[in-house]
Specification:
With about 425 residues, this protein is α/β, with parallel strands linked by helices. The chain contains nine helices and 20 strands. The strands form five sheets. The protein has a six-stranded mixed beta sheet, sandwiched between helices. It has a four-stranded antiparallel beta sheet with strand order 1-3-6-20. Strands 5-4-8-9 form a four-stranded antiparallel beta sheet, with no helix packed on it. Strand 8 and strand 9 (about 145-155) form a beta hairpin.
Length: about 425
């Protein structure tokens, strides 16, 4: 029911009064015309509801950051001659604190037989979830007396996509660090099994196999000497990161946007590190410490985008600190390599990194420097450098965007 229909219903009373008491034919004609108009509009309303096919909003499940996301709604008008006007209202931003909640309204005229796609476009500016909160489609009859609506809510039918981080492989800091990594790609470990190369000799110990005794040397030294071999071992690289940037602690639109920009920079660098390792077929593990899994194994045989999906699915400021992540790795006695990424550092975390360095083959720490540092952060970085930890301070970059931060926003129709 529309306002116009209410006005028409209210006009019936004075028209009936005029036709009854004044006897003027014009009142009778107007009354009859109004009644016919209401009846025709009602049947048109029923006809349109049957002939207008409205689909559901669809969106790609994932998209790289800095791309435009299209929330698409298919609509088909199966009438033979009757045209139609559609009003689309879309709401966005209630769950995104980097923009002000916005409402966009647009109209589209459909001709009989049209099969079109209406779409609402938003710029995917930050890694993570991008959600269309609500969309409403409103259809009016030709005379505007009746209308019907269809509402789409995110809580009923998820209208969401994951924005994947961009693998940043061009940063000079990362390249310098990985050049050091590449030089130490292979290491040696002691093995008891026989191989083609003898590493060294040592005195016989109880439990050694007799076949491993080097008889010629043993006869010269007048004591049993056994052969000890070496074999190549590819060192696995463990990637740990802390994406906390304070997004959950601030409410200002600009501060929230800057926090997510810092987080984007961290995730881009983590993605770039993994790409670098995979391209060189170096075994690596990405530890997300999410609720679903304590560690996600990354190898060259995995789906290429899997690790980027994992990063995009992590809620901002929800990953553990580096210190906590290292503590969860305590059970491992491997001499593997560790790449650490974070924008916050405390003396406790620095102590955990130093403890990790004592049992790891190599530790590289990428610190995403903010504009100002606390005294504790300065002390923590000083502790790491004194312990000969490889520390790379990476300057974060901020996007120059408006308060709303959209490259494109609002219903746009083909």
């Amino acid at each position: 029911m529309t306002v116009f229909l209410v006005i028409c219903l209210l006009l019936i009373l004075p028209l009936i009064g005029g036709a009854s008491y004044l006897g003027y034919q014009v009142f009778s004609i107007l009354l009859l015309t109004l009644i016919v108009l209401i009846i025709v509009s009602f049947f048109e309303f029923l006809y349109i509801r049957r002939r207008l096919k409205i689909g559901t909003f669809r969106v790609v499940s994932e998209i790289p950051r800095d791309e435009i996301v299209h929330f698409i709604l298919p609509v088909r008008l199966e009438t033979r001659w009757l045209p139609l006007r559609i009003k689309l209202t879309a709401r966005y931003g209630s769950e995104d604190r980097t923009v002000r909640a916005q409402k966009e309204i647009s109209f589209r005229d459909l001709r009989a037989g049209d099969d079109v796609e209406l779409y609402f476009s938003v710029a995917a500016r930050h890694s993570g979830k991008l959600i269309l909160d609500e969309a409403r489609i409103e259809v009016r009859t030709f005379f505007g007396l009746f209308k019907f609506r269809k509402l789409f809510r995110h809580r009923d039918r998820p209208m969401m996509t994951y924005v994947l981080p961009l693998p940043n492989k061009t940063d000079d800091t990362l390249i310098r660090a990985f050049q050091q990594v590449e030089e130490s790609d292979l290491a040696k470990r002691r093995v008891e099994e026989r191989s083609d190369e003898i590493d060294t000799l040592r005195s016989y110990r109880e439990g050694d196999e007799i076949r491993r005794i080097h008889w010629q040397v043993s006869s010269r030294l007048n004591e049993f000497v056994v052969k000890q071999y070496e074999a190549p071992l590819a060192i696995e690289t463990h990637i740990l990161f802390d994406d906390f940037t304070g997004y959950s602690l601030v409410n200002d639109v600009k501060e929230c946007d800057e926090a997510l920009t810092r987080r984007d920079h961290i995730l881009d660098q983590v993605s770039g590190a993994i790409v670098w390792l995979l391209e060189r077929e170096m075994p690596a593990s990405l530890h997300t410490f999410s609720a679903d899994s304590l560690g996600e194994r990354i190898s060259i045989t995995n789906e290429p985008l899997r690790y980027r999906r994992l990063l995009a699915m992590i809620e901002p400021d929800m990953s553990p600190t580096l210190g906590e992540s290292i503590e969860r790795q305590r059970g491992s006695r491997s001499r593997d390599r560790f790449l650490l990424f974070s924008s916050r550092i405390s003396e406790t975390t620095a102590a955990a990194i130093i403890a990790l360095q004592r049992r790891a083959y190599q530790v590289i720490y990428f610190y995403f420097r903010q504009e100002s540092q606390s005294r504790e952060e300065e002390n923590a970085l000083r502790m790491l450098r004194r312990a000969d930890i490889e520390v790379f301070e990476v300057a974060t970059r901020y996007a120059d965007s408006g308060v709303d931060g959209f490259e494109s926003l609002g219903p746009k129709y083909a």
